[in-house]
Design goal:
The structure holds 2 protein chains of 2 kinds.
Chain A: E1 5-14, H1 21-34, E2 49-57, E3 61-66, H2 72-79, E4 87-92, E5 96-99, H3 112-123, H4 127-141, H5 156-167, E6 174-178, H6 186-201, E7 205-209, H7 213-219, E8 222-227, E9 230-236, H8 237-251, E10 261-263, E11 267-275, E12 281-282, E13 284-286, E14 291-299, E15 303-313, E16 319-330, E17 333-341, E18 349-359, E19 364-378, H9 414-417, H10 422-438
Parallel strand pairs in A: 3-7, 3-8, 5-6, 6-7, 13-19
Antiparallel strand pairs in A: 1-2, 1-4, 8-9, 10-19, 11-12, 11-14, 14-17, 15-16, 15-18, 18-19
Chain B: H1 2-10, E1 15-19, H2 27-46, H3 55-74, H4 83-104, H5 107-110, H6 112-115, H7 124-150, H8 162-184, H9 189-203, H10 216-222, H11 226-240, H12 246-271, H13 274-277
Helix pairs in contact in B: 2-7, 3-4, 3-7, 4-7, 4-8, 4-9, 4-11, 8-11, 8-12, 11-12
The chains are: A alpha/beta, B mainly alpha.
Amino acid sequence: MAGESIIRVEGVWKRYGLPLMPIVREGWHRLRGAFGFPGEAPPILPWALREVSFEVRAGETLGLIGRNGAGKSTLLKILAGVSPPSAGQVWIDGTLFPMIELNAGIHMELTGRENVYLLGAVMGLSREEVTQRMGDIEGFCELGEWFDRPVRMYSSGMQVRLGFGVGLFVNADVLLMDEVMGVGDVNFYNKCLMHLEDVRSRGRCILFVSHNLFRVRRLCDRVVVLDRGEVKYVGRTEEGIQVYEEILRAAVGGGRGAGRFYDLVGATLVSASLRDMQGGVIETVVQGEPVDLDFTFRLAEKIEILSVHVMVESVEGVLVIWDLVDLERLLAGDNHFLLRWSEIRLKPGVYAVSFDISTGPFRKKGFHHHGVLSMRVAGPKADGGVYQPHSDFRLLEHRPLVVDPAAGGPPPAVSADRPDGGETGTASCAVGGGACAAS
Amino acid sequence: MSDSSGVSFGQTRRRGYCQTGTRGNGPRRFAELARALVAREFKGMYRRSILGPAWAFLQPLAYMVVFTFLRGVLDIPSEGVPYALFTFSALVPWTFFSNAISRCAPSVAANGSILKKISVPREVFPVAAVITSMIDLLIASVILAGMMLWFQTPVGWTLLWIPLLVLMTVFLALGMGLGLAAVGTYKHDVIYGIPFLMQFWLLASPVMYPASEVPEQWRSFFDLNPMAGIIEGFRNVLIRGTAPDTEMLLVSLTVTLLVWGLAWPLFRSVSQYFADVL
């Protein structure tokens, strides 16, 4: 795995705009000043990237995560050689192919087949190479008769398939990917993933940009976390994702008051806090410990037949806890609630707590406040999953394979061994199967 | 592979981009890409039109009709040649020149999606634009040849000048196109101004009238127009059966070289930042 560096980025800085323009503007500004017409100082664009350094090694998939405007696209552009860095160096050993906007340059009036030739040329395939692979590409795109119809009649998913179909047949040592698989149905998506696994196993390296943390987890060995043009973290995926989650949390103003909000019943959330069993306010819950959620709703008037909901979401937006209490009525004034979770068994990370009131027998929308609190769960590191039950996971026993000298043939099949060692066999099989599906 | 990378890793340049893979550029890739772009432009342009490639000669034909009418008003001499042929023989190269420039200037902006995504030689877009216009030139030339047959124009060995004249037009158009694309990608005023510029230039070139009709006191100024020498050259070899005026051609050549001397370095230097502004 730890092969030689394929990509090496050293101290890259980037600022948009022509390099001479600030000097020209500054000169003009001074000239005006000298003649007694001082104007406003010329605006200088901020740095899009600051001192970015990292390496990608052979066979590795590196994830690039960060908020919108963190500099991910800029970095990809620099790596693709499309945009020059303002300072710093980029080395790429071998050929590079950006799998970004794969249908760039497509002409709407041309047919799929004609566009494949164009896309091939753009991506660096020769006409003969495209002709040779046309059958494969046609098969991969699954467009059928639409392949010979103008692309303007295609749905957006079909256009994406066309581009992706050509892109997969480009041989390159480095692939840059930016959420290309956003469109397409599940079958096609799985097909793409299969091909990516294939690409990865051929010892090339991939740089993967995504907002989908689930996909990053699934595909990436390591991640680079970017924020405001600076590298915040380089290293293991799971830790990187935690760093990213914290950046996200910090960005929504410490988690309080910045979320989605509506109120149709005259309710106000006066206070909300997490408390330990002694009643002290806490922010971090230790995995496996109990925690109280203490909150008060102030009502302007009485509500009949309602339910109060508490929701806990992970950073990816997965709803992990949904608790509710049904009430006959809630009177005007302050209503103090307590929700006790006797055991928090969530994967360590930061979670958002939201509150919701729905009214009437049909649970009409009443009140909603998203991300009121953030709940940090502390505990042993986990690479995936959401829920971590108490577990005891170990190897029970080991048995060498029995070679039958009389038969002289290959050792007996594992299945023959299974009935007596049943539990170990099925357990390891299930784990193996799970790992297969998860990788 | 590792050796070459080891060497380059050791270098200490202040800024740089280095990719050891060579698939990215090179003349072969340039040719493949230019060919695909030309195919896209040519097929895409006429696919939804009824007249299709006929548009290649309809434009000079329309100008010919207008000029023939104007001639009745302005009394322009045509040196004993049917005026329609006289002006059409100039309109065909002119239309090529004008279309090539009009296509070149916005070509970079139009292909922004490619430029922003993948590292390609930037010159390929203006070059493809000029080649696309050459297809139109070819179609229009067939009509011109038909017209020459119809009027039974005597032709001779002077026709051998045509490749050189076409080449000079190509280089002038490409030079102008590179310069206009370089600036036009940043400031679109340049692109918006082109139709006007080409109209003006058409009237300042000996398309509607022979160069000999230009008043003497303006002649030296008039000759600075690089298209004057080229168009007169076309007319000389096509309908007058004489060699082009070498002095005028040399002026054209000099101006072309000047244009390239300015436009090419300009294009090279700003082209690396195209992806930043598109």
